[in-house]
């Protein structure tokens, strides 16, 4: 039997397999208010056979928003909406982590009453976000402006927003939280020399560029416990103005700190575009030397590559994204060798149940 289908553990949770549902923005929250809803609950519950689910990225505050129709975790209505989701997933026997998100500069003034998005530094960059035109209801990719730099006091406010969001996640019934430190969003922006040129204690040296990550993680751990806390990072990201020459040693230093804190898992995003660089095996080894708790990897994994990364000990879980969208019972299909349904990308962002919760399980196909 493939290791992928053997039981695992993450924090204090025991999992029936090692097939994780990766976080994927789907932009289907109820408006106004970015509130999760019954359709979201059905979607996630359909996929409860995963080792555990990581939800779509969820903004910790209005300031943290960067895309249309993405859910939040800062209002009472949002907490109640997410409770629908966690209740449905748990009733189906599943486990679910909420991904906590602040986009930083990956945003647009239209989300902030005309104010500029925030970042470690006011640097122009090449990045776009998905935004719906309120006059037409049609979404499209829109360029991000040059952001403004956060003050020290504002940085501390954001850290407190992460703390409150983690608290709200527990109130909503989640099994844990995954801090989004990847893909060019705020925590990632602080780590990289290309997006952080601050001259105070949050910029410059590797230690200073990691300070924000550490203070966020300390706040979340203090609120919900290390065994319910995780983080996602993207070592080889170069898009969105993030090609930092010091990012690999910075992330390795972060891994040492995260192991000392005893967090539940470290989630590594591997480049998943066609001509992306491969994750060097030396880097996988270096991460594992520093981080002994659970490691989740995500990228263009198939069964063969998943077996390889697990057998080498470089990871304990493998996350699947688009495969899980079209195949709600993905662990079963992978284990039994059943054909996988395909995915049409036109309905990934926004819309109705079509292309979202209408994919049948294998046993229900006509």
Automatic annotation (TrEMBL):
Signal peptide: none annotated. Its cofactor is FMN. The keyword Signal does not apply. GO terms for molecular function: FMN binding; oxidoreductase activity, acting on the CH-CH group of donors, NAD or NADP as acceptor. Keywords: Oxidoreductase. GO terms for cellular component: cytosol. Residues 4-339 form the NADH:flavin oxidoreductase/NADH oxidase N-terminal domain. It comes from the Bacteria. Belongs to the NADH:flavin oxidoreductase/NADH oxidase family. This is Alkene reductase. It comes from Pseudomonas fluorescens.
